[in-house]
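Question (not urgent): is this output format expected?
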Amino acid sequence: MKKNLSFVMAVGWVFSLSLAGLAEAQDNMQIATWAGFRSAAASFTFDDNAPSHVTKVAPEFKKRGYAATFNVVTSWMNQQNAWSNFAGLVADGHEIASHTDSHGSGDLSNELASSKSTINQKITGQDCNTIAYPYCTVPTNGSALKSNYMGGRICDGQVMGKSPSDYFRISAITTGSGDGNNFNDVTQLTGKMQQAKNQGGWVVFLTHGIQGESNGSATYSPTSLSTITGALDWAKTNDIWVTTFRDAIMYSKERDKSTIAKKSGDASSETYTLTHSIKDNVSNYDYPLSIRVKNSNNWTTVSGTQGGKAITTSIKDGYIYFDAVPNGGDIVISSGGSTPPASSASTQPQPGSSASTITSTASITIEMEDYMQGGQGVGYSDIDGKSDNTGYRPDDAGVVAVETGYAIGYTMAGEWFNYSVETACEGQYSVVARVATGNANTTRFSVSVDNVAGSVAVDVPSTGSWDTYTEVNGTGTLKLSKGKNVVKVNIDESYVNVDWIKLTSDNAQCPEVIPVAKNLRLNSLSGPVQYQVFDMNGHLLKSGTVSAQGSVQNLWSTASRGLSKGTYVLRYGNGASIGSVQVRK
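Got this back:
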């Protein structure tokens, strides 16, 4: 571990800490060894563009929310007319990497740039920046290698530590059976992952064709599909980050070279920076790193932004967790979470303004993966502990990956999830949900508010598969009050995936508040003033710092730039001098 402490007396103090992994519990700021603070990483790589990679392998990874790396030989792709098939894998997060143009047995330095260029022309939505060397022969032209790729794969059968000594000679373990190879038992793969877990390291698997399937030119040492899926399922329950070859390289390089520093802080917010200087012509190295900082103020809920854009935050075991991109701008962690302070939820007219009540349509969408903080028994009740290990949040209670983001899955009867909902509009709300189930029979969950008697039942018929989502309507309505509401989703019958639920009222009573008057002062604050803007569901939209000049109206004219018409909560001030006001643009 390397530490760098520096005190800058002219502007206060800066505490800077550079970490190559997860440090001791007493440290204030930590960069995780692997994404989501998992104990090890595993990359599954597939060579020689077998048709079975598209038809059999990729769907199994998608089902579990994982991504793999497919190393393609460009000339073979043309022969098999497979470009469009492999191009479709990128949308699911898979990596299409180089295995050269010809798969020749000699020095293929002359194919380094051309294979990369061809892949980038044929595959959109990614940049080809890793390579698997045919026959594990490393090209002799090191400068051409480093100018085109961030890393390369050999095959000497070793499990690596968290930081490979040479990223252009990353070891892989060949799977399958035949041609002298005998590594086709799931326990052999899980044993290697356990070894990586024991040392906080990284294991890479090299697979060619799939036994009994259409493999084209990928005939060497075929592997059974059950061996691959068995290893994936083991990884899911054993704290392993299953990711692409490229993303593991990026995370490892960034983690070792990044520095997180506390820039400023007070009782209401803290600002951090996350930086490195390893950007080159191959990559910006902007993969999000998992961070945790000490919750020194004992905040119960928090929210976060980076570069003015919202990031997901959570609290656990005395730390605040979030993912951030190196060199992505200031990271601002603020007390209050996704729910503004109680004063900002007031619907009373503000000084110098007027208000009235109007009837309108109101709609609130609740993303199921954004259940309340607090853990088991507070934000959720999770019975089986299963999830896709997406890394979306540390307290992962059944979070699964979907094409639009995340959902809740692995549900069992008796589980429940709580959601904090802030609304300025009182009314009766109907329920629509986006759901999926592979069950043959209809299953059910129900939605209630603040433990008040009555709920809306949502019956979910079979959608044909766990990846096929559709929208269904609930039966009945729920009453939401102005201000804070706790919405509870109860799993009444097992095995339903829920992406989101939408609450809609056609006759909601909504107070309309006009902008604050120009004579509302900034309460004698001096120096720069921090501000945050929330929507009426409590979601942080933007934050920043402005000079303390004139009125709140002047501050709002700056803070409201780029916002669409609507009603917002403006929170402003420094330290203990915090004010909140509801405004309308």
